[in-house]
Design a protein that fits this description.
The complex is a heterodimer of chains A (119) and B (112). Chain A is globular, with a radius of gyration of 14 Å. Chain A contains one helix and eleven strands, in the order E-E-E-E-E-E-E-E-E-H-E-E. Helix content of chain A is 3%, strand content 54%. In chain A, strands 2, 4, 5, 6, 9, 10 and 11 form a seven-stranded mixed sheet that branches. Chain A is mainly beta and 119 residues long. The relative contact order of chain A is 0.31. The longest helix of chain A has 4 residues. The termini of chain A are far apart. Chain B is mostly beta strands and 112 residues long. In chain B, 0% of the residues lie in helices and 51% in strands. In chain B, strand 10 and strand 11 form a beta hairpin. The radius of gyration of chain B is 13 Å and the shape is globular. The chains are: A mainly beta (119), B mainly beta (112).
Chain lengths: 119, 112
């Protein structure tokens, strides 16, 4: 497989459930990102990991818990979500190195997203 | 801080019409500029990019020129197709920590 793969593509969960979203990249990148895309709202950057270390957390509620066990995998653990958390969750990766240009020259590569519905 | 402003949508065109989607930016230094496209039910795909002033990015008939004097990166296509219907995002990346900043997106609807 190549690129950025997200699973599952669709997820329906109740407010008391616990589930996880998975993202895997096969590009040799060293930075990974979670974005939330809601209807009629701008893309929201949730979390950033660079070299497996979380470098940004944009005031995301604690019911969202990211995990980056290695540079190829990123998870988003979900628990006790609210209906307003229903959205498309996008994962992205990049080569984050200012020395060689990296993301500055090539941007991010995105997965196809997980469409989450909270009922 | 860095920001991107895109024209509001939706933009509705007939097939073979000329397309312009405006994008202006605010940034310090010399950012890279990108256009991403999102087809229904999909994630974002890089459409084209430009990394320095006066560069022209192009792909699939779309073009955009990095204009530093007007801080703009407008997307153009000479003849749109129904298959171009999607949401288009302008984005920039500044120097330093490489965080991609997006505009709000512009929906394009092309009818036969």
């Amino acid at each position: 497989e190549t690129g950025v793969t997200q699973t599952p593509r669709h997820l329906v969960m109740g407010m008391t459930n616990k589930k996880s979203l998975k993202c895997e990249q096969h590009l040799g990148h060293n930075a990974m990102y979670w974005y939330k895309q809601s209807a009629k709202k701008p893309l929201e950057l949730m979390f950033v990991y660079s070299l497996e270390e979380r470098v940004e957390n944009n005031s995301v509620p604690s019911r969202f818990s990211p995990e980056c066990p290695n540079s190829s995998h990123l998870f988003l653990h979900l628990h006790t979500l609210q209906p307003e958390d229903s959205a498309l969750y996008l994962c992205a990766s990049s080569q984050d190195t200012t020395r060689t240009g990296g993301a500055f020259l090539h941007g991010y590569t995105f997965g196809s997203g997980t469409r989450l519905t909270v009922v | 801080g860095n920001s991107v402003t895109q024209m509001e949508g939706p933009v509705t065109l007939s097939e073979e019409a000329f397309l312009t989607i405006n994008c202006t930016y605010t940034a310090t230094g010399y950012p890279s500029l990108f256009w991403y496209v999102q087809y229904p039910g999909e994630g974002l795909q890089l459409l084209l990019k430009a990394t320095k002033a006066d560069d022209k990015g192009s792909n699939k008939g779309f073009e955009a020129t990095y204009r530093k004097e007007t801080t703009s990166f407008h997307l153009e296509k000479g003849s749109v197709q129904v298959s171009d219907s999607a949401v288009y995002f302008c984005a920039l990346m500044g120097t330093g920590f490489q965080k991609l900043v997006f505009g709000t997106g512009t929906r394009l609807l092309v009818s036969p």
